[in-house]
Amino acid sequence: MSWVPSVQDSSIGRLFARVCEPFLEPFRRIIPPIGGVIDLSPIIAFLILKLATRGIFYLGYLFG
């Protein structure tokens, strides 16, 4: 939501922040915003989550 700042102040924005921030916060500590403005940590976090999900499904396929 850093890409659309006006959404951050809405009730939906606060809900998303409450749900997503615990997951995104470690990525934000590692990956600084580009130029202090563009936050790429959600993209990296999504890719890591996708890889983890695929790995879990693969393990389930092997041992299931």
UniProtKB/TrEMBL annotation:
InterPro entries: CCB3/YggT
Coiled coil region boundaries: none
Family as reported in the entry's similarity comment: Belongs to the YggT family.
Gene Ontology cellular-component terms listed: membrane
Range of residues in the leader sequence: none
Protein name (record): Membrane protein
Organism of provenance: Sporolactobacillus inulinus CASD
Transmembrane portions of the chain: 43-63
A Pfam family per the record: CCB3_YggT
Keywords: Membrane, Transmembrane, Transmembrane helix
